[in-house]
TrEMBL record:
UniProt organism field: Cucurbita maxima (Pumpkin)
A cellular component annotation (GO) from this entry: peroxisome
Protein name as it appears in the record: (S)-2-hydroxy-acid oxidase
UniProt xrefs under CDD domains: alpha_hydroxyacid_oxid_FMN
Catalysed conversion reaction: 2-hydroxyoctanoate + O2 = 2-oxooctanoate + H2O2; 2-hydroxyhexanoate + O2 = 2-oxohexanoate + H2O2; a (2S)-2-hydroxycarboxylate + O2 = a 2-oxocarboxylate + H2O2
PANTHER family reported for this sequence: PEROXISOMAL (S)-2-HYDROXYACID OXIDASE GLO3, S -2-HYDROXY-ACID OXIDASE-RELATED
Primary enzyme class: oxidoreductase
Listed transmembrane segments: none
Keywords on record: Flavoprotein, FMN, Oxidoreductase, Peroxisome
Length: 341
């Protein structure tokens, strides 16, 4: 049941496959005879230095993978000198994760019908040194995840959402209990105007996650967000939404460099990171590979996943003739939209 929950996507899982396949359709245009005796992957996000443009995406309930849960993930992210985005549905509390490592952390938030709960979570994160709020905007309700519906997916009580305040939810005895829970919590009436409310309750920078069109990218910039994450929630929300990498350039063009653009969904190789950067992303985030590393070998497994991606990116940069992150440009990739010269 937990494997299905981690691995699965919405409905026919067309978008789940597409998230990876869209990367496969992009080729890299390497340059030769560039001095790549030193390759430097370091960069910054919102001014915070990281060793490579690969962050840990917010994913729920790490205790389903191992008993230590998010504490192990946070230590692995710190060891890799990168940023972890803690999910609102973390199975360890905001405070526990904060005291387990001194790495830079962001906190992912949904806005609930009960605004006081969202406000409290954001303020707890700010008080405990989280450096940004990641507002996930693609979840007015949960997508139709058929594996979870068949499995009657539920978190066991001992792995409850410590990050949240316990709320009594009426669970029906069929379908995904998670879906029932989420749909009772989420404020499906949320609108762009509500970003102003979020601004009023936190002084942290706000990144908006779940943008897939130039229209929404433009609105996000107008709404004053500090960054955009191009994402389809790991293909768990709307099936047949586009693969993030296939719409990245559209978003980057609309944003015109006003705020950083990040991407997640289907990043499995260093070459994928390279391609996303060439199309204008400042960094990528990784979801499922981190969970699988965690389930296989705890903190060490997540470290291995992050090291593998970093090593692959380093090799890709060397072989493509890019000694630094800023050397990776649009002309280093060819997409299916590019005409052959
Ligand atoms: C997620 N994701 C997610 N996103 C979010 O904003 N809040 C959340 O609580 C969760 N929870 C969650 C659980 C699980 C099991 C998965 C797989 C994903 C989405 C996540 O942040 C990210 O967008 C995707 O996981 C990226 O795609 P890949 O790397 O998994 O392909």
């Amino acid at each position: 049941m937990y494997y299905d929950y981690y691995a699965g996507g919405a409905e026919d899982e067309h978008t789940l496959r597409e998230n990876m396949q869209a990367f496969h359709r992009i080729t890299i245009r390497p340059r030769v005879l560039v001095d790549v005796s030193q390759v430097d992957m370091s960069t910054t996000i919102l001014g915070y230095p990281i060793s490579a443009p690969i962050l840990v995406a917010p994913t729920a309930a790490h205790k389903l993978a191992i008993p230590e849960g998010e504490l192990a993930t946070a230590r692995a992210a710190a060891a890799a000198k990168t940023i972890m985005v803690l999910s609102y549905s973390s199975s360890c509390s905001i405070e526990e994760v904060a005291s387990s490592c001194n790495a830079v952390r962001f906190f992912q938030l949904y806005i609930f019908k009960r605004r006081d709960i969202s406000a409290l979570l954001a303020q707890r994160a700010e008080r405990h040194g989280y450096k940004a709020i990641v507002l996930t905007a693609d979840t007015p309700r949960l997508g139709r995840r058929e594996a979870d519906i068949k499995n009657k997916m539920i978190y066991p009580p001992e792995k409850n959402l410590e990050g949240l305040i316990s709320i009594n939810i009426q669970c029906v005895d069929q379908g995904s209990k998670l879906e029932t829970f989420a749909n009772q919590m989420m404020d499906a009436s949320l609108r762009w105007e509500d970003i102003r409310w979020l601004r009023s309750i936190t002084s942290l920078p706000i990144l908006i996650k779940g943008i897939l069109t130039h229209e929404d990218a433009t609105r996000a910039v107008e709404a004053g967000v500090d960054g955009i994450i191009v994402s389809n929630h790991g293909a768990r929300q709307l099936d047949f939404s586009p693969a993030p990498v296939s719409v990245l350039e559209e978003v980057v063009d609309a944003v015109k460099g006003k705020v950083p653009v990040l991407l997640d969904g289907g990043v499995r190789r260093g070459t994928d990171v390279f391609k996303a950067l060439a199309l204008g992303a400042q960094a990528v985030l990784i979801g499922r590979p981190v969970l699988f590393g965690l389930a296989a070998k705890g903190e060490g497994g997540v470290r291995t996943v992050l090291e593998m991606l970093k090593n692959e990116l380093e090799t890709s940069m060397a072989l493509a003739g890019c000694p630094c992150i800023k050397d990776i440009t649009r002309s280093h990739v060819r997409t299916e939209h590019d005409r052959l010269p």
